[in-house]
Amino acid sequence: MLQQYREGYREYKSKGYQCENCTSKQKCTNSKNNQKIVSIHIWNEYIEKAEDIRYSPMGKGSYSLRSQTIERVFADAKEKYGMRDTLYRGLAQVSKWVRLKYAAMNLKKLAVWRAKSPYHFIIFLFYFLFSQKEPTFQ
Description:
The protein is mostly helical. It is 59% helix and 9% strand.
């Protein structure tokens, strides 16, 4: 029997009458109604794939650079762009404010790339013009 919860977990329950006379019941469950319950997150398969990649030799090398790239963006947002606190209330207003801040950060990054090498700018422009537009870009 399958039941899905709001938190993203699926709960599988065995049927008690099938497990009642099982010889290996003691290994599975000690419940009074002879029912085994297993909870698995709906993204469990993808989480396992991500962990396999992360612990591979290539993944270990790229994960060590995480502090210099990904976490640096959030640190800059907090220190340079005033994102420690928000002036707005409500999810919609805060989301708009955060999108605007990150758009400004991306434009600044684009300007720095263009100053260093025009090729980065051309690649970004080509990608932006010919990629499928998401609602946030429209």
